[in-house]
Structure formats: structure tokens, C-alpha cells
Write a structure and sequence with these properties.
Layout (H helix, E strand, L loop, with lengths): L4 E2 L4 E6 L5 E7 L9 H11 L15 E3 L3 E2 L2 E2 L4 E6 L21 H8 L15 H17 L3 E9 L2 E2 L18 H16 L6 E8 L13 H10 L4 E6 L10 H4 L3 E2 L2 E2 L7 E2 L2 E2 L4 E7 L9 E4 L5 E4 L13 H17 L2 H4 L2
Antiparallel strand pairs: 1-2, 2-3, 3-7, 4-7, 5-6, 8-9, 8-10, 10-16, 11-16, 12-13, 14-15, 17-18
Helix pairs in contact: 1-3, 1-7, 3-7, 5-7
This protein binds flavin mononucleotide.
């Protein structure tokens, strides 16, 4: 299986399965002399781990160990290897899906491609893999914060409820990372109903990167927006990515969508901080559409590996929505891209 590595200079390889012994990440290309403690990584993992009424009841501590690349609290510039042991594994929950393909999940495509699949917890297609991304992203965060770059994601819409207001201080006050406290209450109420119905929900996450200097991104195939879109889309359940006005720009006039240029920058930011694949120095604004969780306890039609039709009701431990757990993962992917471009020779060498 190829495609487990990401990034050119600041690169990450993730490894491990949902119900294997452990999973982890190897980060290469991190500059030396950056202060890094396990607690820096743990803080990010704690934001992603299961917990709360609408996330999987799987109890994973997600305790991370740094195996290499850090000496006396500083990165050495050598590969940083991270390991997270799987503790609360209950593979028996997945016996049924060893025979049946879950609608909306990757069971059938994996089996068609590889001729076999690790059905325990979904193997590599499980969201458990995103713990490794979160850990790697925490290292990118240390590097970016040192350079004055900060990334924050929040819930813009969930389960059909949209935010009407934006209070940045509210984001870390509620369990959904939602900047509108009224909307957050409505989202929670709606999730409760959806859960009781044996169903699941999707939503929209917005990601902001502030403090980015102008000049990140490489024309033509390595445009900053192209690499961000690939990074965000590589997270399970993400089905759409927008930069700036995104799909809305298709129905705007040029006079509405253009950002007037002024001496020190731009008057507006419809472009979402990227023009021609290169950062403008404004905030980078990304939105991700997150689909509903495929594993639902409602009965669904499917087939088994012999093609025999069947009805399936998924009883294992699952999230009702990938939001909010996806929030730190999307921040991590954004930070991995930005760190990579910050270290690109055409930028770093200027
Ligand atoms: C944070 C997060 C949590 C998720 N939790 C679950 C879950 O509990 N059950 C499930 O079936 N899918 C879950 N998913 C979604 C699946 O991983 C995803 O739908 C699956 O891999 C198929 O990939 P695709 O939706 O990108 O096509 C989660 C995804 C993320 C990012």
C-alpha cells in the first residue's frame, strides 16, 4: 500500500491499524533546536481522542511516546518517531463486518483493491489513523508558532444547524468548537435526536491560518491551495474543500469577488489569502464539508464478499459525527502543509 507519506521537506509517514498493537508517525525534515516535549503532542491528541456524548465510547488514552529525534527537550533535526499504543481494542465488535461491507465505508473498495482487508476496526481506513496525523501536526505547530503562524479550526455548521454569529472566544468554551453558543446548543440537541434515531450527521468546518507571510506556495502543480485541498481531502469523511469564497465565487461578479489592492495589502479577503497558488499575507481561509459517519445502527442494504444481499445494522462503537473530533485533525493537516512550504528552499532560502 503506497501513499502513507505526505510533504516534501517537512514530511510525515503514518503507520498502524485501528486494532493493531500500535500506530504512529515518523516526521522527517523538522529543523533542529525546537523545544519539544511529549506534553506538547499529548495536548493535541487529547483534543482528538474519544469523549463526549456523540463520540465513540472506545476509551483510548492516546498516550504518545517520542522514540527519536529529540534530545534534552530539543529537536535534533533527525527523524522524530512517535508511537501511540492501542489499548481499548474490541475486535469482536467487527466480526460482522468481516463478512459484510459497510455502506459509505471503505470495506468493499479496500477488498477490491488488495484482495483482503484488515476488518478489525476498519484497519487503516479507520479514523484512528488520524491520531498519528494529530501527533505529527503538533510538531508542525511548534515550528509554526515559533514563526508567528497560528491555525485554528471551528464548526461552522453541524447536523443542519448553521452558525449565525462568530465569537472567537466561544470556540474553546463548548465541546463542538463552535463560535456561536446558541448554535452549539441547537447542534447538540439535534445530534441527540439523530443518535436516538440510530443515524449520523455531517457538517462544515472552517479553518483559519493567521500570521502566514506572503510567498508560500509554488506555481504550478504545488500551489498552496492545491496542496491544502489535497491535505484536507485526505482526511476520511471530508467530501469538499473551499478556499476563500470557494463555490460562492461562482455566482459572484468580478467586482464583488476581487479584493481591492491597497498599499499594505488588500481591502478584503474573498481570495482566502491565496492568489496564483501563493499566500498573500492575509488570513488563509479554508472550509471542509464533512459527510455523516457511515456506521449507523439503522438497517442498511449491503452485500457480502460473495455478492449475497443482506441487511446490516452496525452495533460497534462509533461517532455520531466526525465533528468535533475532526477539528484538530484538519488543523494538523493545514499546519503540515504550511510547515512544508515554510521550509521549501524557494521560500526559506530567500
Ligand atoms: C475524526 C473522525 C472520526 C470518525 N469516526 C468514524 C466512526 O466512528 N465510524 C465510522 O464508520 N466512520 C468514522 N469516520 C469516517 C470514516 O473514517 C470514513 O468515512 C471512511 O474511512 C471512508 O472514507 P471516506 O468517507 O473519506 O470515503 C470518522 C472520520 C473522522 C475524520
Amino acid at each position: 500500500m503506497a501513499g502513507n507519506s505526505f510533504g516534501r521537506i517537512f514530511s510525515v509517514t503514518t503507520w498502524g491499524e485501528s486494532h493493531g498493537a500500535a500506530l504512529g508517525a515518523t516526521v522527517d525534515g523538522c529543523p533542529p533546536a525546537i523545544p519539544l516535549a511529549p506534553s506538547d503532542i499529548q495536548a493535541e491528541l487529547d483534543r482528538r481522542k474519544p469523549g463526549g456524548a456523540f463520540s465513540t465510547p472506545r476509551k483510548e488514552k492516546d498516550s504518545v511516546e517520542i522514540l527519536s529525534g529529540v534530545f534534552q527537550g530539543l529537536t535534533t533535526g533527525t527523524p522524530i518517531s512517535l508511537i501511540i499504543y492501542n489499548r481499548d481494542v474490541r475486535s469482536s465488535d467487527y466480526k460482522e463486518i468481516s463478512q459484510l461491507y459497510r455502506p459509505g465505508h471503505a470495506d468493499r473498495t479496500y477488498e477490491q483493491k488488495y484482495g483482503l482487508r484488515d476488518w478489525r476496526g476498519g484497519g487503516r481506513s479507520s479514523a484512528r489513523e488520524t491520531a498519528a496525523r494529530g501527533a505529527a501536526g503538533a510538531i508542525a505547530k511548534k515550528f509554526l508558532n515559533n514563526s508567528g503562524i497560528y491555525v485554528q479550526a471551528f464548526t461552522l455548521a453541524l447536523a443542519g444547524v448553521e452558525c449565525k454569529t462568530h465569537d472567537p472566544d466561544e470556540i474553546n468554551r463548548n465541546s463542538l468548537y463552535c463560535p456561536d453558543s446558541d448554535a452549539a446548543q441547537k447542534m447538540l440537541a439535534r445530534l441527540k435526536e439523530i443518535k436516538a434515531d440510530g443515524d449520523s450527521a455531517g457538517g462544515i468546518v472552517e479553518i483559519h491560518a493567521r500570521g502566514c507571510p506572503p510567498g508560500l506556495g509554488e506555481p504550478v502543480f504545488d500551489k498552496l491551495d492545491a496542496r491544502l485541498a489535497a491535505a484536507i481531502m485526505s482526511v476520511g469523511a471530508v467530501k469538499g474543500v473551499e478556499i476563500g469564497e470557494g463555490f460562492r465565487s461562482a455566482s459572484m461578479l468580478g467586482s464583488e469577488n476581487n479584493d481591492p489592492i491597497i498599499e499594505n495589502g488588500y481591502e478584503t479577503n474573498h481570495a482566502g489569502g491565496i492568489l496564483g497558488g501563493i499566500s498573500t499575507g492575509q488570513n488563509i481561509v479554508i472550509r471542509a464539508a464533512v459527510k455523516p459517519i457511515p456506521s449507523i445502527s439503522r438497517e442498511q442494504r449491503t452485500v457480502d464478499s460473495t455478492g449475497r444481499t443482506s441487511l446490516m445494522s452496525i452495533k460497534g462503537r462509533h461517532d455520531v459525527s466526525a465533528i468535533p473530533r475532526i477539528i484538530p485533525v484538519l488543523e494538523a493537516m493545514t499546519m503540515l502543509v504550511l510547515a512544508d512550504f515554510m521550509l521549501h528552499p524557494t521560500f526559506a532560502g530567500r
